[in-house]
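Deliverable D4.2, example record:
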Amino acid sequence: MSDSMADLRRHPRSKVAWPVIVEAGGRRFERHTVNLSPIGAKVRLEEELPVGSNARLRFRPPQGQPLDVDAIVWRSDSDGPAFFFVSVDDAAISRG
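Output generated by the structure prediction step:
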């Protein structure tokens, strides 16, 4: 994606390397985020996940409470999948 296309995003992405556990297709991966936005995240993951498949992301930010999010694989790039958030764990909201 070119820089000019990235500037057209509705939600800016922050380059953060938060620990995240990805649960998808009966598998579990402990990795780090590449970037994060209010509606999605990209995760550094060598394994390819099918676009459209369901996943559970368990974020563990350096400060603050853990956050569990249901997501789908939106895109598969060379540096890892991009996830689109579908729902946030209600318990995380009540802790906030």
